[in-house]
Write a structure and sequence with these properties.
Layout: H1 2-29, E1 34-39, H2 41-44, H3 47-58, E2 63-68, H4 71-77, E3 85-89, E4 97-112, E5 120-121, E6 130-134, H5 146-152, E7 158-163, H6 166-174, E8 179-183, H7 184-187, E9 195-200, E10 206-214, H8 219-229
Parallel strand pairs: 1-2, 1-3, 5-9, 6-7, 6-8
Antiparallel strand pairs: 3-10, 4-8, 4-9, 4-10
Length: 233
């Protein structure tokens, strides 16, 4: 019993220390000469480069600093002073922020070519396959919960690997280790010679990408946010 109490206390301390270190590191890289964008690694590797490239053609003098966190940590940290703007999945509206929807889409099933899966797949029929679960992502728990659906439909998923990154999950699938449910942005980066991408029958697992800013930020941040609001991704 005492060991359990100590372990629980140590876990809390470790979590607090991790949060402190993350904040300290972002403060070191923050600069008022940059627009500091909090975002996820998968978005920083998909839609963010396109957005920055297009904006850079209009305003080449503007500089950007990307702060990468997973979705849940990003939502918790987005109001801290080191982040000017947040671009993330499935954000809930907060009274002290302004939010714009940049894109909506679906999750799909990605599988190695060798599995020969059809273009439309029922999750019940792939329960025997090794599954790579993406954890700690709001897109799995907010707008349409994949985990809740799997539980309610009594689908026995054969999870062999867990990761908190879409990109990591895609790499594992492309290595032939199993199937995974990924967002369309990540699917667009997949090597079509290595994987099949299938629609999931029975239910649409949706995601939304939001751009969020505080009510009061620097003028260059406001201008960039207004530019984002007009984009169709």
């Amino acid at each position: 019993m005492e060991a359990d109490d100590l372990y629980e206390h140590a876990s809390v301390v470790h979590s607090q220390l991790k949060s402190f270190n993350a904040i300290a590191n972002t403060y070191k890289t923050r600069s008022i000469d940059f627009i500091n964008i909090g975002t996820t690694p998968s978005l920083a590797d998909s839609i963010i480069p396109k957005i920055i490239k297009q904006y850079n053609e209009l305003k080449p003098e503007v500089k950007f600093n990307l702060i990468n966190l997973n979705s849940i940590d990003l939502i918790e940290d987005r109001y801290k002073p080191e982040i000017d703007l947040t671009i993330c999945y499935n954000s809930k509206h907060q009274s002290n922020s302004i939010s714009k929807i940049l894109k909506k889409g679906r999750h799909k099933l990605v599988s190695p070519k060798s599995y020969n899966l059809d273009s439309n797949v029922d999750l019940q029929n792939i329960s025997h396959l090794p599954f790579i679960e993406v954890t700690n992502l709001l897109s799995f728990y907010e707008e349409s919960s994949i985990n809740e659906y799997i539980k309610n439909e009594n689908i026995e998923i054969n999870t062999i690997i867990k990761t908190d990154s879409y990109n990591s999950a895609l790499s594992l699938v492309q290595s032939g280790l199993g199937v995974s449910i990924l967002d369309e942005n990540t699917c667009n980066k997949a090597n079509q010679e290595q994987v099949n991408i299938s629609n999931i029958l029975g239910k649409e697992f949706l995601f939304t990408i939001h751009a969020i800013k505080k009510d009061i930020v620097r003028n260059e941040c406001n201008e960039f946010f207004n530019y984002l609001s007009q984009q169709i991704l």
